[in-house]
Amino acid sequence: MAGPTGGAGPDIAGGDRVNMAFVALIVAVATIGGFMFGYDSGVINGTQDGLEVAFNLSALGTGFNVGAILLGCAFGAFGAGRLSDMIGRRGVMLWAAGMFIVSAIWAGAADSSFHFIIARFIGGLGVGAASVLAPAYISEVTPASIRGRLSSVQQIMIITGLTGAFVANYALAATAGGSTAEFWMGYPAWRWMFWLQVIPAAIYLLALLAIPESPRFLVVKGRDAEAEAVLSRLFGPQAGARKVAEIRATLDSDHKPKLSDVLDPISRKVRPILWAGLILAVFQQLVGINIVFYYGAVLWQSVGFSENDSLLINIGSGALSIIACLVAISVIDKIGRKPMLLIGSAGMAVTLAVMAWCFSQSQLVDGAPHLPGAVGPIALVAANAYVVFFNFSWGPVMWVMLGEMFPNQMRGSALAIAGFAQWIANFAISVSFPSMASGLGLTLTYGFYAASALVSYVLVQRWVHETRGRELEDMTG
After folding, report:
1. Reduced to 3 states, what is the DSSP secondary structure of residue 83?
2. Which CATH number fits the domain that encloses residue 367?
3. What is the per-residue pLDDT across 188-244, written as a single tens digit (0 to 9) for each?
4. Are 406 and 273 in contact, with CB atoms under 8 Å apart?
5. Global pTM value
6. Owning domain of residue 88
7. Residue 394 and residue 190: Cα distance in Å, rounded?
8. How would you class 269 by CB atoms within 10 Å of its CB: exposed for 0-12, middle for 13-18, buried for 19 or more?
9. Residue 224: closest CA among 210, 196, 238, 244
């Protein structure tokens, strides 16, 4: 449990002095998982040409190679929630880091579509685990008054990872003369796009050794002395002992966590809080955000932009996403989670509708689609405005709320189910996009995403309740 012990911060935890240096270390290390989540997800954007040439893929085949990671994410998220109740939050994150390393090496070396899909599935297991456990872990070690801001760092790291992948892909393709051109050691550049992931994955693995296990998990396992030591380093000796007693009281009033905790003990129906979590998890994907992240280069090339310009557009979108996340961090503990979700839903519905209209104006020029006149710039502005609305709201807020909204007793199980649903929705949207775009056209495809954003507004208004400023021990199902 190495780490800084000094640097006590302001009185922000109900009278407790917070060791902000230690909190910062924990958040920084835990959110490297978010960076890997973003990098592993975004690296595929710009490699499709190489995959299609190397494996002779059809449109549907491309969709499955791109989406293979997402099935792994679904199972990784589902398994991680329950596994973390057995071996700990940090224990599962260490396992995830190992999956990132294996996946990066294997995906870059794959000699067939089958091997590539298996490699990406393994990476997905790590991404899924990191996606649900990093925000949960952060929520369990940070003060309620700043929990939203610190948990939102996860989304910034996801976008930073995505942008890092876009920059690396652009640099490799530009240096080699194209994603399919030969690069170091005679291998094409697209393979090196995957191999570069080994560097941040190894850093993540080593950095995890510098942070402690979640104190709430330690109490569940009867390791109260270890939990008190962690909490004392975070909030001071008196607060440490008090918080262990509070956690122990919530656990002693019930049984050990199990999957059936997501059901009401009397009616045996799914608890409303889980339905709220599922709405957040699924609709974050139904609005189509990962189409921009996974297929951005292909999308913009399909309406007349060059490969080079398309990769640059990806980088610009990533930069705007980071700025939007920074704004979200500055206000999430002031205006609350629910208002931000509603703002995001409304903004995404409008900007996606504008994009659908723009794509309806596409014309064929020399046999290739092209957006005429001012329509191209309007589409770019709408697309980037959409990315900003998402990363101001549903991007960070969904992960924050999943990490904090569930009671201690059911947090692991609820995260498992919500995480599984989130990644299955991601898989469905991502794999279906090539077929939808070629069959229905971009207009109807983006019209569906716009409609989903509109529906999400209604559902948030009805099902989602504010969690700002509430202690985790006060969350009810």
Report:
1. helix
2. 1.20.1250.20
3. 887 888 898 899 999 999 999 988 888 888 888 888 888 889 888 888 888 888 888
4. yes
5. 0.70
6. 31-211+254-474
7. 31
8. exposed
9. 244
Residue 404 lies in a domain: yes
Encoded tokens for 365: 């020029």
Q: Using CA atoms, how far apart are residues 206 and 4, in angstroms rounded to an integer?
A: 16
Q: Residue 301 corresponds to which tokens in the numbers above?
A: 């090339």
What amino acid occupies position 175?
A: T
- Within a domain: 234: no
Say how far apart CA 208 and CA 152 lie, in whole Å: 19
* Tokens 């991007």 sit on residue: 395
**Cβ neighbours of residue 395 closer than 8 Å, sequence gap 6 or more:** 155, 158, 159, 284, 289, 321, 324, 325, 328
Q: How many residues does the chain have?
A: 477
Structural domain count, the chain: 1
Beta partners for residue 19, in sequence order: 8
Structure tokens at 133: 């456990």
CB 361 within 8 A of CB 377: no
Residue 235: inside a domain: no
Q: Which amino acid is at 105?
A: I
Distance separating the N- and C-terminal Cα atoms of the chain: 33
Q: For residue 378, give Cα distances in angstroms to 305, 343, 381.
A: 14, 21, 5
* pLDDT, tens digit (0-9, with 9 covering 90-100), for 11-47: 444 455 777 888 888 888 988 888 888 888 778 776 7
